[in-house]
Amino acid sequence: MKVTMPNLGSLASIAGKSLLSNLGHEVILPPPNTKRTLDLGVRYAPEYCCLPLKIVLGNFIEALEKGADTIITVGGWGPCRFGYYSEIQKMILKSLGYKFEMISLEVPHGNLIRMLNFVNRLRNKKSLPSFIEALKLAWAKVVTIEELEKEALRVRPRENIKGETSKILKRGLSLIDNTNSIEEIERIKQKTLIDYSKIIEGNEDKDLIKIKLVGEFYVALEPFVNHNIEEKLGYLGVEVERGVSAIPWISSFLKFFRENKLQDIIENAAEPYLAQSVGGEGQSTIGHIVLASENGMDGAIQVIPFTCMPEIVAEIISKKVSDDLNFPVLTLIYDEQTGEEGLVTRLDAFVDLLKMKKFERHLIRR
Length: 366
Hints:
The chain is α/β, with parallel strands linked by helices. It has helices spanning 11-22, 35-44, 51-65, 82-95, 112-123, 128-155, 164-177, 182-198, 217-221, 223-226, 229-235, 246-251, 261-270, 282-294, 309-325, 340-365, and strands spanning 2-4, 26-27, 70-74, 101-105, 209-215, 238-242, 299-305, 329-334.
């Protein structure tokens, strides 16, 4: 099989590629997201569909143009329309004349047979020990990528020379991409962390505005879609903490076997305002906002694609949360018309607001 998958930050291009290539698949990744990717998705997707569907559709078209014949994607469940998107994309691509097979990976929720069928397809006749080793390596890459990206969020607003954090991160991710050794991945991580520490000498304890970034999974984690919001906030002197992570999502496939204690904490925090799932990350968004307030952060930013039902529900509820907890929340809605200049203006204004509130709190304490 000539396999492809959607872009999602560094995760698909590094960890996903590692898993599939070590199982003997030929991996044909789509090019990095560009305006052409977006234009292709907008041209062929239904207008009412959200931005992630359109860009991922563009990914698939560009990968099929490069010779891919099998698409691995993800599905969903519950009220979120995300669960239908792989089927919609499949229908569109077939109508355009592309010949391919689509494999949609979904959280089993009791359907163990379906999950095992997918695993067997993925194994590609490799022995069980080889399959487990490929999984371990890919998982090590996922965990390390997220650790380095999250540490970059702490380092970037403290760096002594603008842009150094992103350079160090890019170099570390490139090295991780090119190794098949878990021990080497750990060495690369430690070296990258040391490099981070060198560029913030004298600023380690700098008191900064701290913002929780929450919202829809894809928009929060794909820099092209969110216009590199994490980097922009870092350059505004803001320490960002992610409320969206690939690790819990991937771990949810194991929820059939074990509990997810972190998710329980998030859901318990959301319960006074949103006691049940509304699909997607809606309930988690509320839980993260509550926890961010309890942990003394300065504010939260919710990023959502236009028409996303779960996040629209969360947006409405977040206003009540914000009022009750006196905790500022900014909601940014993305579609194909979202402009970078308008985004920067809103971020500047929100950060200024948080700085003013923080200054007022310091005066009161005196």
